[in-house]
Amino acid sequence: MTAAAVTSRDAVAPLYSTVELPDSPDLLDLLPREGALSWVRRGEGLVGWGEADRLEVSGPGALAEAAAWWAERSAGPAADDGVGVPGSGPVVFASIAFDPAAGTSVFVVPEVVVGRRGGVAWVTTTGDADPRDVLPSSREPLLPPPSRLRYADGALDPATWCGAVSAAVGRIGDGDLAKVVLARDLLVTADVRLDPRRLLDRLAERFPDCWTFAVDGLLGATPELLLRRTGRQLSARVLAGTAPRGAGAEDERLAAGLLSSAKDRAEHALAVDSLVRALDPYCTTLSVPDGPSLLTLANVRHLATDVVGTQRRSGVRGRAGLLELVDAVHPTAAVCGTPPDRAAAVIAGLEGMDRGRYAGPVGWLDGRGDGEFGLALRCAQLSDEDPCSARLFAGCGIVAGSDPAAELAETQSKFAAFQAALES
Ligand SMILES: C=C(O[C@@H]1C=C(C(=O)O)C=C[C@H]1O)C(=O)O
């Protein structure tokens, strides 16, 4: 085992000050063009900018290292927090690699965080800045939208990716595994620089039921909540099983078909089971509805299960923080498969790409241990080298009976979430 690689700017915890804002600002409107950090749903959540500190970490102990780092960074000289709700006081935004042992996970402590929750709004600053002085008086104008977008295949062209799906169905038929999630990437280049704020605005408008996120150039609107912790209360929204949207009566027919599909319900049950099995040892209560409901988005419809639990008060598991819980539940069968080790090996053998932080946990954590992590889906990684380019990701659960052409169409429907933001 190699040791986790850790880079962090300096060793002294910054000072944090939080004040309540008299008016509730539009969070996304506050973001600057560079370094946008976001976790926003229906106008509530957190945005941040500037970097007071940053941790990049990988290796088998990556999330434990990150938890220790954050405990030190958030526990420094007492935070001056006059608001006292989840997300006020010290906050770190995080985007964790799909495979935290192999990929790089990024943790950013912003210089400024603005939050909104239940109608209360606040601003938190790190260092000497006075929280009353840091909000922009007006928004820097958005860059013009692209007039031309060029798409190119990522790691696998569509026909080769369908071949990978067939191979996975073969492995499932041989009894090697029950489910594997296979993803593909799509490269896009615009004729102008991409403005993250324009993309976030469009995603938030079109996907009000999703969490619009941005951390270190990974931007998206995810419908899937891996884990939220508020005190001892834990909650998650598990998704698996997808149908396209249709027009008029066809849409109703597709919805009814998804809810009654034995294949989709079995695929969904594997994802719920994987979360419940991993979370159960940490909980005194864990409640799972009898069957899935439908989550309807602009581009697709999913089978969804909302799970809620209460974390134990005592013992080692009672002391587990949110990053330890995230480490325990990730990857669920919603993004990896069943059993997870075999599925991970099939992904490594068939996908032909590095997922990076796609399908990894993304969200935020505060100094009390409250926070929210979604799965980084319906997203794109903006290129560091070329400000006009991005890499989009989409994947699908493959089970017995999966049809490669239908799975390819499903990835296209999922890409469409980010494409609409680029194109509008
Ligand atoms: C892997 C993705 O989505 C996951 C796979 C789903 C499915 O196969 O039905 C549904 C929701 C997500 O859990 C993705 O959007 O890239």
List the helices and strands and how they pair.
Blueprint: E1 5-8, E2 16-21, E3 37-41, E4 44-49, E5 53-58, H1 62-75, E6 80-81, E7 91-95, E8 105-109, E9 112-117, E10 120-126, E11 149-153, H2 158-173, E12 179-190, H3 196-206, E13 211-215, E14 218-222, E15 225-230, E16 233-244, H4 249-260, H5 262-279, E17 283-287, E18 293-296, E19 300-311, H6 315-318, H7 322-329, E20 337-338, H8 340-350, E21 361-366, E22 371-375, E23 379-382, E24 389-398, H9 404-423
Parallel strand pairs: 2-6
Antiparallel strand pairs: 1-5, 2-10, 3-4, 3-13, 4-9, 5-8, 7-8, 7-21, 9-10, 11-12, 12-20, 12-24, 13-14, 14-23, 15-16, 15-22, 16-19, 17-19, 18-19, 21-22, 23-24
Helix pairs in contact: 1-7, 2-9, 3-9
The chain binds ligand ISJ.
